[in-house]
Write a structure and sequence with these properties.
Strand order of the largest sheet: 3-2-1-4
Number of helices: 6
Number of strands: 4
Order of helices and strands: HHHHHEEEHE
Number of domains: 2
Largest sheet: 4 strands, mixed
Distance between the termini: 80 Å
Helix content: 25-40%
Length: about 160
């Protein structure tokens, strides 16, 4: 009927969400003549969507839950992988956990290098002091004052010196 209706031929392929040939060719390497249209169970008016979702959730299978319920075809738990999929995603969601105070000291006593003292609240920098030149007793006194001011234990101080 392509000639009768003067249309371009096309093919429709349906599949369950998993990795493989279709994933590589149509999702990761889509082109102008190859389009991927995602359809989830929620798009099907002819099934009991709540019952379907409950059935998938009841399996406890994280891969099926991610792929069948959420259409997350990138979710991967292949044996031998270097990293868990969730851990890879977590690299960009590292929250700053305030509350633990620390002080780092990079001491420079020779050359043109500077001494840098940083006060940390979790992963957040709270204060930075830079000395062009300094002596050990000046740095030690300053660190002790910073510990008192910010309520930081001396066991949470680290000093790096060449």
């Amino acid at each position: 009927m392509v000639k009768d209706y003067n249309i371009d031929p096309c093919t429709i392929i349906t599949c369950n969400p998993k990795k493989g040939y279709l994933y590589d060719r149509f999702i990761k390497n889509a082109t102008a003549d190859r389009t991927f249209i995602q359809v989830l169970y929620t798009d099907n008016p002819f099934i009991d969507q709540k019952k379907y979702a409950e059935g998938i959730l009841a399996t406890g299978n994280k891969v099926q839950i991610e792929r069948l319920l959420y259409g997350n075809r990138d979710y991967d738990e292949t044996p031998g992988r270097l990293y868990e999929y969730d851990d890879i995603l977590d690299m960009w969601t590292n929250p700053i956990n305030n509350g633990e105070g620390y002080i780092t000291v990079d001491v420079a006593r020779q050359g043109e290098d500077k001494t840098v003292i940083i006060v940390w609240d979790g992963l957040e920098e709270k204060d930075m002091i830079v000395y062009d030149t300094s002596t050990n007793d000046v740095i030690e006194d300053r660190v002790r004052l910073l510990c008192q001011h910010h309520s930081i234990n001396m066991s949470h101080v680290i000093v790096d010196e060449d």
